Structures
1.
Amino acid sequence: MRTRRLVIAGAALAAAVIASPARAQGELVVYCTVQEEWCRPMMAAFERATGIRVAMTRRSSGETLTQIRAERANPRGDVWWGGTGDPHLQAAEEGLTEEYRSPNLALLHPWAVRQAEQSGFRTVGIYAGALGYSFNARELERRRIAAPRCWADLLRPEFRGEVQMADPNTSGTAYTMLATIVQLKGEEPAFEYLRALHRNINQYTRSGAAPARAVATGETLVGITFLHDAVTQKVAGAPVQIVAPCEGTGYEIGSMSIIKGARNLDNAKRFYDWALTAEAQAIGATAKAYQIPSNREAPIPPEAPRFEDVKLIDYDFARWGSAAERTRLLQRWDREVRAAAR
Ligand code: PLP
């Protein structure tokens, strides 16, 4: 009798293991919003450190917010790692993300903790980076075009069809640009500028870093991106020059959130705590991602653009990351800029 019960228990256990082998080891679903080249080693390092299996999908920031909202009734992701802070703040406000106070918050720079406080601890800063643009220096020289230095220079007629940026609906980078121009100039002059810039745009890409790659290959003369995305191309040997615009510019606090209703909540918290460590944040530079890490002990890559060298605006994350303002600005951009003739 005793033996039989043991056999039955053993069979039941074996059936459970066969039915869901991943659950037996632990699993985690991560929506990753940085470049694929950084997502992959980050997930692999977490798997090595914990034995938890990670299923990762890479999308842009705005796309990820849209996906999490669409899955609200039946969440499939556990952690949203990376991407600009504004859509993470909007997700927090919409109740799409979980409150969590990691013990590792104490390891972070004040700007990263502020991001957490601002959202009722539903998101947290993991890196920072300033916005700007890059240009293909070889092509500019060949065409004898003077190097641009300011946002205003991008309206020059010689850049007609030669400027690339992402679509702010899908890309957090491009939304940062939209909100930056509004904060720099005031909303009406900002939309005048964006409509004028539209005439010089050759393509609105889905992903924010794509224009930096197009500059590197000479497909476009100018690409509006985060400065660190252009550094990645320069380090790889591309003939690019990087510009922090003379009028001043905005910046991002790249963020991380736990998705409300996460099926693997304990593992999500483990990932969250781990992603705030210096060791995990050092992986960025090895993947040629040159942001400023939020952990005070994480090494700042020597190639990372320093905030001290950039004229930064006092970006109002609470306002421009709010659901009402972000939605309103994007709708206005669709109506008045995207839909305009070129
Ligand atoms: N990749 C890197 C390296 C970034 O720093 C960021 C911004 O957080 C993103 C991707 C976000 O990309 P997207 O503008 O496509 O949302």
Note: Residues 2-19 form the longest helix (18 residues).
2.
Amino acid sequence: MSKTYKIAVLPGDGTGPEVVREGVKVLKAASSKFNFKLNLTEYDFGGDRYLRTGEVLPASAADELRKHDSIFLGAIGHPDVKPGILEKGILLKLRFDLDQYINLRPVKLYPGVETPLKNKGPDDIDYVVVRENTGDLYTGVGGFTLKGTPNEVAMQTSVYNRFQVDRCLRYAFQLARRRNKRKTLALCGKTNVLTYVYDLWERAFHEMGEKEFPDIKREYYHVDATCMWMVKNPEWFDVIVTGNMFGDIITDLGAITQGGMGIAAGGNINPEGVSMFEPIGGSAPKYTGKNVINPLAAICAGAMMLETLGEAKASKAIENAVMDITASKLKSLAAGKMGFSTTEVGDLVAERV
Ligand code: IPM
Ligand code: MN
């Protein structure tokens, strides 16, 4: 009997629904080819719903989503809603409530895609960033005193406990082993300034590596140097592991080296629970409804979702289809410059799958 996966689909804001439509098209093509079933349920969480109802996320959302095998998300962010409300109230809240403690962000340059890095090609740019996804400056620990006065104080604190660090490191070590590429895990930190938080990370890193992963080579880079080497020598990297804030920043840099937000996908992963896959680029409201946005990031997020669900062959087929069209069809990955519409790009990938 073929397997059925219950997928919650959250198209979200802006161009989210357009890219999700193409992602779903490709997932459906993969399901008929590879003999599994998809049971899709759509949820309207996002800016429009918030403006209509005043509620950011229903209290039942996390429990409702937990009943699924996975979540497929478009984008969150609405031009008429103050920055922070939807991002914190939907995206970060789901990551936290569902304890999606890994944010997995592959940085892989596909054939035919232009990179701003001089003299670098697909052989040089192929690594994965494991961004811790539940701690750090994102926990909301902090506050104001004397707000609005000349003596106002604002504080926001990076928070990590050993458990969070260990579970993230373990995932990253295991990934380096599974990839079986350079068998190298690089810790990205700032041990020269953040002498508490990244001291904890560094000790945990070496202790775990020594005991459980002697086959994996360990490297350490400060975050500023990481940025430099991601530009100058991206071929050094295999798996990079880092905290939430640095991970957020370096993965935008990584994304631009792989061709930009049109192609960059990520997974918010709870290895023991329900994960959520998304294009990492945001809602790009100015392109909404124009059928010009690049759906490949969403399509790649769908491929990551299938891989995590255990449908490795279907996932690989989607990735191969994407590589085929970046190599032979698309003029550019930028919105409006692909030489094809959003829908046509979805069709091209679906046909090849
Ligand atoms: C990302 C985004 C989010 C983050 C924002 C929208 C809260 O930048 O997924 O990288 O900071 O994690
Ligand atoms: Mn980000």
Note: Residues 248, 252 surround manganese (II) ion (ligand 2) (CB under 6 Å).
